[in-house]
Amino acid sequence: MKKALKIIAVSLFVMILAGCQNVSGDSATKTMKLAHNQTLDHPVHLSLVEFGRLVEEKSNDTIQVDIFPNGQLGSEREVIELTQTGAVDVAKVSASALEGFESDYSIFSLPYVFEEYEDFEHVMNTESITDKIYKNTEDIGFIGLTYYNAGMRHLYTKDREVNDLSDMSGLKVRVQPSQTSVNMIEALGGIPTAMAYGEVYTSLQSGIIDAAENNETALVGNNHGEVAKYYMYTGHQIVPDMLIMNAERFNQFSEEEQALIQEAADESTAYHEDVWAKAIKEQTETAKNEMGVQFIEVDKGPFIDAVQPLHKAYANDEKTKDIYQLIMGGKAND
Ligand code: GCU
């Protein structure tokens, strides 16, 4: 009940905001509300701004994209729900957060399903694979438009170096709200706690958790490097950020408009690659030199071995075996 009220309240808030913007805007302009949980200087925000610019340019300013960053419309889970109802038109969320809505998305949280970025890139640029995933959620209210590179996820801790599996014992690690990620930390010997991204900094600070796992932008862009001083290159997941859109809203656009929205999404994904690479390079340097974070190479072998039972279970489960086969068969080196 409380949750339903929150969705209604946020929906009303979004409608009021949109209303205010329309007062000065051209009434012929169609506005799309886009929500995400990152800061204004995060690389994915820059690429979403580029998406908006491209939509506006390609539509001769007849479609406008209004971005609500910083999780101001809620956590990723809440924003996915708002996208289902249509209170939000477009959202950028982690594929891990989508697992609770469509089990196909759980493949991205299965540890070491991609060991190399090239394999991930190949899969994400194979239309027969992405089409299946992106369109599979139409009946629950949204479709996928594109993905953004969100790097490799690595483990980081407040005050413990993790060199091998024995160091994982008793470690309280925050994971995304994804059952597969919970299973991953258990398989590695740690104690998982699923929570929204916005709560991680204070939870690390107060000791509710000892560790988290993410790409390097979490250290600088989200300031986690102020409290977490060890960053281990475990490379356990490559989870894309997904751009999803309310299905009904998309279908209300003309075919030409749909095509230009799709084109803008694809082009912003390509644009993002450079923005991402630059941000990772710069932020790693900042974390090292200004925050005193130590970057540590680890032997991934034992970590990969420890999660093999998860792969087996995943490959045999009725719900996940098709997507597992599809992705394993779609990798560049297979
Ligand atoms: C990444 C991802 C976010 C997500 C976050 C998380 O930073 O880009 O969308 O919220 O991980 O760990 O929750």
From TrEMBL:
PROSITE patterns: PROKAR_LIPOPROTEIN
One Pfam family of this chain: DctP
Keyword annotations of the record: Signal
Source species: Oceanobacillus longus
Gene3D superfamilies: Bacterial extracellular solute-binding protein, family 7
InterPro entries: DctP_fam, TRAP_DctP, TRAP_DctP_sf
Protein name, UniProt field: TRAP transporter substrate-binding protein
UniProt entry tagged with the keyword Signal: yes
Keyword Cell membrane: no
PANTHER family attached to this UniProt entry: DICARBOXYLATE-BINDING PERIPLASMIC PROTEIN, PTHR33376
Signal peptide interval: 1-25
Annotated NCBIfam families: dctP, TRAP_S1
